[in-house]
Amino acid sequence: xxxxxxxxxxxxxxxxxxxxxxxxxxxxxxxxxxxxxxxxxxxxxxxxxxxxxxxxxxxxxxxxxxxxxxxxxxxxxxxxxxxxxxxxxxxxxxxxxxxxxxxxxxxxxxxxxxxxxxxxxxxxxxxxxxxxxxxxxxxxxxxxxxxxxxxxxxxxxxxxxxxxxxxxxxxxxxxxxxxxxxxxxxxx
Length: 188
Hints:
five-stranded antiparallel sheet; alpha+beta
């Protein structure tokens, strides 16, 4: 596809003065083999912070696409009221499930009472597990307050085992031996 075709496709039904440039489609509901790409602790301009998991799809039609899960450990709402227990429990279970699927042993000391300290401890705990595989299932459910943006729900299972490639021994070549290659066989 040439640039003019790409321009026509990108701007079809899109108004540069009104519409966002980020109109990429979300990964649809389904089950995917993913890799734990990165875990970090972003703090947004609003002051809201969370533990962010970046999952990269490694197989199928959506391979190389990423899904980001933002999990809050806030115990108070933005209005200062206590966060419902089921919300805090669900978020801790989500973090623990991801940990279990990448073989990270979750312990209570990873969840100190200070929310920011908990995020930082969890980022450090997950760091050695980045690159591990797991299975991610995405389901969607209606959002009564904003029907155009349904809730995305996640569950996780064990991923496919990826074996490291084995280095084949080259018995016929000594490490100090050189090879003559004809100039016609070079790619450049």
